[in-house]
């Protein structure tokens, strides 16, 4: 004890770290990834690897040569952005488009604002929406399910549930197929069951709280349910809403992104209800069949405002005698 | 099981010294009895160099409302009255005494026999507590008699005894309950009499099942005392949290417990009250825990005030190899000490060794806005926001975001995955905002 360290309390730390949380989310994504790899085969693998590798690489290059600071690629956040971007893409998307999407996600949406923690919008969703607007045909042509296929760019394609409903005509997959993910769609969004397993894991590990996913899903259920009760012939059933498109992926993994979501339970409820309403509005009356990405990005924009006005429940706020 | 309703964490308990009998620390050749307290005005010395003092004799007189008397913990000759580095990190006044024998004032009853009956009036009890220099032993060392005298118009409904000991490692209160349960219950009835309340609740964290059982057994013969086990969750022993957990009332922002009809006293304080009222023994010693992951012999000691920590530590086996930090108190709210030439004070609950690798903080990363600090804050504050505002000197905004409510429990810093020094910045902001508020109030007057 020649030299003692002096520092203010607390003197112990719980041991949590950014990389533990990022790895936790990746583990939670694993079941959905397995489902994607199974249903879409080789294409899903190529898309995932390309997105993850290019996101990590872009973050490294930008930090090394433009920001000239220390690199943070080992914290896992860039890899997670890549994984989430891939989950939002069709499994037959050409490699060069994925690289462009990754550059936009990491370069534009994340690093230009100062890196992890400072970006106002979810990077993976910015990347995805950029691709959707730039390459609308490639981004809305989904391969049909072909378990463990080796097809990639040449995969057979078909319509998703939501586009079928928008355009009419085709028969919908059964509810059971929609639950396990046996339907066309982006590679990580199809299996509701796998995504829900991920949610349970994240809740147990306390990586996220339940407020955002539950508020989004409940809002969609109630709002779409009211529309459906008013006119079942005109509007999509709430169950189909919940199980189709990117809703589960969005509610569980995209909207719960730490950086871009509100920072207390009350704010999370406002944010979640907003996403739920916008999703149903865009899906029902918008030009696109799918609305989750736009709904989340719009509510990302409201997050600073929500944080400013909506405060957590303070101690002693309620009546003194309870 | 009962618990407070907002936030909280559960650090590793590490109660290595649990169940270790309280040993009496040896009296060294020289002691330096602090005249300053953790809060309030230092007491005024009423002895001078060369005076002979006996154990229990008053040597410092309370100076002002929030201050407490100080008594000689040893017998001998006053060597000097000088400043001494204490656990606060500042040099503050102390009475240095060269020890000669161990001669006590005759008025003090030193027999181990338990005296249950107390026929004193409320006023007599209060003045005995005040004379004995009793302060809260939970850490804030607030004078006990002040807490026991509610402001005009306020009436206490319930007495709460804080026997939570929610800090990891520390076991002094636990051991005190096991060895002096009866005295604590008598102390509780005395406090009830002083407050004129019919009901007292002793809150104990559920990791001290033997103490809960022991006190439950004893409480059968005391009217109005309830033992309540509490969920093991930090900061269960925070005054406002404990009241919330036990009687489901939340003390409003900026108010004190009497606002909701409660008065809280620490269990160690309660024992000191017993000794003062029933045995005429002023506050001259307390129980402390010496512990750490690498401590050779984690133990509990009864130590006279003013004894240098180095003396006690030596007796307990010395500072272990590879110690990088020594904390006075618990790991969440204790203060790291510059060295061990620091005298034992009324608030010293423990000496905790941290190994080298535990002593250094990990590198700070960007805030990822994960909300975990908000979720664990037991006061419902936004630590991430307060830190950001403190970094930018945004004092009015910090006040609006209730920085003064912060109890400095450290749950935010403990939880942060980016190792951000949240509480460091909040504490800085809180003291600045506190000064601004005081200046504003002075101007208005």
Set down the secondary structure blueprint.
The complex is a heterodimer of chains A (322) and B (445).
Chain A: H1 18-40, H2 42-66, H3 77-87, H4 95-110, H5 123-134, H6 136-139, E1 142-143, E2 157-158, H7 161-167, H8 175-180, H9 192-204, H10 211-230, H11 238-243, H12 247-254, H13 265-285, H14 292-309
Antiparallel strand pairs in A: 1-2
Chain B: E1 22-24, E2 30-34, E3 44-45, E4 52-53, E5 58-61, E6 70-71, E7 76-85, E8 91-99, H1 122-131, H2 144-147, E9 158-162, H3 172-195, E10 199-205, H4 209-219, E11 225-230, H5 239-247, E12 262-266, H6 267-279, E13 285-292, E14 299-304, H7 309-315, E15 323-328, E16 335-336, E17 350-355, H8 356-359, H9 372-376, H10 383-391, H11 395-400, H12 411-415, H13 422-444
Parallel strand pairs in B: 1-14, 9-10, 9-12, 10-11, 13-17
Antiparallel strand pairs in B: 2-8, 3-5, 4-7, 5-6, 7-8, 13-14, 15-16, 15-17
Helix pairs in contact in B: 1-3, 3-4, 3-6, 10-13
Q: How would you portray this structure in words?
A:
The complex is a heterodimer of chains A (322) and B (445). Chain A is built from 14 helices and 2 strands; from the N terminus they run ααααααββαααααααα. Chain A has helices at 18-40, 42-66, 77-87, 95-110, 123-134, 136-139, 161-167, 175-180, 192-204, 211-230, 238-243, 247-254, 265-285, 292-309; strands at 142-143, 157-158. The longest helix of chain A is centred in the N-terminal third of the chain and has 25 residues, at 42-66. Chain A has one domain: Orthogonal Bundle (Ammonium transporter fold). The radius of gyration of chain B is 21 Å and the shape is globular. In chain B, the strands form 4 sheets. Chain B has a 6-stranded mixed β-sheet. By secondary structure, chain B is of the alpha/beta class. At the A-B interface, helix 1 of A face strand 15, strand 16, helix 9, helix 12 and helix 13 of B.
């Amino acid at each position: 004890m020649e030299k003692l360290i002096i520092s203010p309390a607390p003197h112990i730390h719980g041991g949590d770290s950014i990389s533990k949380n990022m790895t936790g989310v990746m583990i939670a994504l694993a079941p959905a990834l397995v489902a994607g790899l199974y249903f879409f085969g080789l294409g899903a693998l190529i898309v995932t690897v390309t997105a993850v590798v290019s996101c990590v690489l872009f973050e490294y290059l930008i930090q090394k040569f433009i920001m000239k600071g220390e690199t943070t690629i080992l914290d896992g956040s860039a890899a997670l952005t890549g994984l989430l971007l891939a989950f939002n893409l069709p499994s037959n998307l050409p490699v060069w488009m994925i690289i462009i999407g990754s550059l936009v996600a990491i370069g534009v949406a994340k690093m230009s604002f100062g890196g992890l923690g400072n970006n106002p919008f979810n990077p993976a969703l910015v990347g995805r929406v950029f691709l959707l607007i730039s390459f609308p045909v490639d981004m809305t042509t989904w391969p049909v399910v072909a378990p463990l296929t080796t097809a990639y760019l040449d995969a057979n394609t078909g319509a998703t549930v939501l586009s079928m409903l928008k355009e009419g005509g085709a028969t919908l997959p059964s509810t059971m197929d929609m639950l396990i993910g046996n339907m066309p769609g982006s590679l990580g969004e199809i299996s509701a069951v796998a995504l829900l397993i991920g949610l349970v894991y994240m809740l147990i590990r306390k990586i996220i709280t339940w407020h955002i996913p539950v508020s989004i899903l409940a809002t969609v259920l109630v709002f779409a349910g009211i529309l459906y009760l008013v006119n079942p012939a005109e509007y999509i059933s709430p169950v189909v809403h919940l199980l189709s498109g990117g809703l589960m992926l969005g509610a569980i993994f995209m909207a719960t992104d730490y950086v871009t979501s509100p920072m207390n339970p009350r704010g999370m409820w406002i944010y979640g209800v907003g996403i739920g309403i916008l999703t149903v509005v865009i899906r029902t009356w918008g030009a696109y069949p799918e609305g989750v990405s736009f709904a989340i990005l719009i509510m990302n924009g409201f997050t600073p405002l929500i944080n400013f006005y909506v405060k957590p429940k303070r101690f002693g706020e309620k009546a003194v005698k309870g | 099981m009962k618990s407070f309703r907002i936030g909280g964490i559960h650090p590793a308990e590490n109660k290595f010294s649990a169940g270790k009998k309280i040993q009496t620390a040896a009296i060294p050749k020289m002691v330096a009895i602090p005249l300053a307290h953790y809060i309030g005005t230092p007491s005024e010395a009423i002895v001078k160099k060369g005076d002979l003092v006996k154990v229990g004799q008053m040597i410092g007189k309370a100076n002002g409302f929030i201050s407490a008397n100080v008594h000689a913990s040893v017998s001998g000759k006053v060597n000097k009255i000088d400043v001494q580095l204490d656990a606060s990190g500042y040099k503050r006044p102390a009475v240095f005494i060269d020890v000669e024998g161990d001669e006590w004032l005759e008025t003090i009853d030193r027999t181990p026999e338990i005296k249950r009956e107390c026929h004193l009036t409320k006023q007599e009890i209060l003045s005995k507590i005040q004379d004995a220099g009793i302060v809260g032993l939970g850490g804030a060392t607030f004078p006990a008699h002040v807490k026991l005298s509610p402001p005009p118009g306020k009436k206490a409904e319930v007495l709460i005894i804080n026997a939570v000991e929610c800090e990891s490692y520390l076991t002094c209160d636990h051991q005190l309950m096991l060895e002096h349960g009866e005295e604590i219950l008598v102390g509780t009835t005395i406090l009830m009499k002083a407050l004129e309340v019919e009901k007292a609740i002793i809150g104990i964290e559920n990791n001290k099942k033997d103490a809960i059982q022991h006190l439950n057994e004893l409480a059968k013969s005391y009217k109005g005392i309830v033992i309540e086990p509490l969920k093991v969750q930090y900061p269960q022993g925070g005054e406002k949290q404990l009241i919330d957990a036990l009687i489901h009332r939340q003390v409003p922002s900026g108010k004190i417990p009497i606002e909701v009809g409660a008065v809280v006293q620490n269990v160690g304080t309660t024992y000191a009250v017993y000794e003062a009222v029933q045995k005429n023994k002023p506050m001259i010693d307390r129980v402390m825990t010496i512990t750490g992951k690498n401590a050779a012999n984690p133990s509990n000691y009864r130590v006279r005030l003013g004894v240098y920590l180095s003396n006690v530590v030596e007796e307990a086996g010395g500072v272990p190899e590879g110690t990088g930090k020594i904390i006075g108190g618990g790991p969440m709210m204790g203060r790291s000490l510059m060295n061990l030439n620091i005298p034992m004070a009324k608030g010293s609950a423990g000496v905790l060794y941290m190994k080298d690798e535990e002593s250094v903080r990990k590198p700070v990363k960007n805030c990822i806005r994960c909300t975990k600090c908000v979720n664990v804050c037991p006061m419902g504050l936004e630590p991430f926001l307060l830190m950001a505002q403190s970094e930018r000197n945004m004092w009015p905004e910090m006040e609006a975001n209730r920085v003064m409510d912060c109890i400095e429990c450290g749950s935010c810093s403990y939880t942060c995955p980016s190792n951000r020094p949240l509480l460091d910045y909040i504490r800085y902001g809180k003291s600045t905002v506190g000064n601004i508020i005081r200046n504003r109030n002075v101007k208005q007057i």
